[in-house]
Amino acid sequence: MEEDDADYEDYYNTSEDPEMEVPQEEDPEQFDFECLATEDVERLFNECVEGVCAALPVKPSLAKLLLHTHAWNAKEITVLYTAGASKLLVDSRIKPANPPQTEAQSVRGCKSVSCSVCLLYYIGEHFRALACGHYFCKECWSTHFEIQINQGITTMMECMGQGCSLLVPEDFVLSILNKAILREKYQKFSFSDYVKSHPELRFCPGTNCSTIVLAKEPQSKRVTCKYCKVVFCFKCGSDYHAPTDCDTIKKWLTKCADDSETANYISANTKDCPKCSICIEKNGGCNHMQCYSCKFDFCWMCLLDWNSHGSEYYECSRYKENPNIANESAHAQAREALKKYLFYFERWENHARSLRLEEQTHQKIIDRINEKVMASEGTWIDWQYLRNAASLLAKCRYTLQYTYPFAYYMETGPRKALFEYQQAQLEAEIENLSWKIERAETTDRGELENQMDVAEKRRTTLLKDFLAV
C-alpha cells in the first residue's frame, strides 16, 4: 500500500471503529416510495387537474395539457398564467400566436363546405377545428387520429393544418373517435405519457407488472416493487446501479455492448494455476482459489499468492495509469485505453459471474438446511443465519460490481484514491465472507456473523461517501 493510502487506515482499521457505525436513519440507500395501482394514479391526475381548474379559468382537458407540458407543476402553471395567460397558452401550444380571422359561426352555419383534405362537401355542422381555426370534416379528423394512435402518438397529436403545431386536447379527440378499441388505446397511451412526464412517477419495469412507483424526491435510489419484486433505479428505470450514477452506467453499458467481442476473450471461465500451471475452472463466487492439484492458494483476478494478498488488495482492484501516456503515440494511447477498459471490464464481469455462482451456493444452503431440519439437527430459525449470510453476500457483491464503472470514469486524484481504497476494503471483506459461506459447515456461527457485520459496514460506508442521487 502506498503512503497516501495509509491515511485511510484510521478511518477503516477495525470493525469496532466508531466511524464504521452507520445508524439506520443515515442509511445512504434509504428511499421513501409508494407502489400504486393504475386507479390510484388516475385519481392523482384528476386531483391535479381539479386543482388547476379551481385556480385558473381553463377546461379540464386544457388543464391536463398544461400539466403534461409543464411536468405536472401546478404552482409553476399558476405563476405563468398570472404573469401572462396568453403567452402561457401560446407557449404550451394550446392557443395560436395569431388568432384565426374566420369566425367559427360563419363556418358552422354554412349549408355546404368543402373539406380541404378529402375535398368532399358537408354541412358546416360536420366540421371541427381547434383554436387555430383549421376546419376539417369529422371523418378526416377521425382518420388522422387513428393513424396517430396506431403509431403510439396521443398527447403530442397536432392539428392537421399545414404548419400548425397546436396540440389536440383529450376532449376533442374523444368527441371525434367512435370506435371503442381506438378510444381505449388512446386513453391507455395517454395515461402512459402522463406517467412518463410526471417527475414523481415511474413505471415498474417488471414483466407484465402494471405497478407505478410514486416518490416525492426523484433520486437515483433503489426501488423494490411490492408486487413483482423487481429491483430498479427510480431515476432512470434501469437495474439499480449504486454507486454509479445514471449517466455513467448508461455510458458504461453502451461501451460494454460495443466492445463485447473485444472483451470476451479475457472473460474466460478458466485460468492456469500460477504455481503448477494446471487448468482451473472457477465454479464458485469466491475469488480466493485453491488449486485442486498443488493446493496453492491464489487470487483469481491477479493470480498472486493469497497469503500475502490481504495487504495487497488495493493493488489488485486499482488500475495503474501510465503517467506519461499523453506523450505517447496515438497507437500507444489507443492500446493503453483498451488495456484500461479490459482491466475494469474483467472485474465487472467477474463479479457478475460470481453473483450467478453464489446464487447456486445459496440454493445448496437452503437444501442443506432442509436436510438438517428433517434430521432434527436444529430448526429453521437456528439455521436462518446461513440464508441471511448468503443474501448479504449477494447484496455486497452487487454493490461491488457497480463500483468498477464508477472507478473507470473517475478522474485521477485524491477522491479516486479514497474510493479505490474503500473499494479494495469492501472487496477483501466480501471475499472473506464468500470463503466462509462456501465452507459454512465448518465455519463458526459467531465468526460468520461478525464477517457479515464488517462487510455490510464497508458497503454502507462506501455508499455514504460516494452515492450520487
From TrEMBL:
Keywords: Coiled coil, Metal-binding, Nucleus, Repeat, Transferase, Ubl conjugation pathway, Zinc, Zinc-finger. It comes from the Eukaryota. One of its GO terms (molecular function) is ubiquitin protein ligase activity. Residues 1-26 are annotated as: Disordered. SMART domains: IBR (SM00647). The keyword Zinc-finger applies. Its EC number is 2.3.2.31. The keyword Nucleus applies. It is an enzyme of class 2 (transferase). Its main location: nucleus. Residues 423-465 form a coiled coil. Pfam families: Ariadne (PF19422), IBR (PF01485), IBR_1 (PF22191), UBA_ARIH2_N (PF26000). GO terms for biological process: protein ubiquitination. GO terms for cellular component: nucleus. It catalyses: [E2 ubiquitin-conjugating enzyme]-S-ubiquitinyl-L-cysteine + [acceptor protein]-L-lysine = [E2 ubiquitin-conjugating enzyme]-L-cysteine + [acceptor protein]-N(6)-ubiquitinyl-L-lysine. Residues 111-320 form the RING-type domain. It is found in: Nucleus. Belongs to the RBR family. Ariadne subfamily. This is RBR-type E3 ubiquitin transferase.
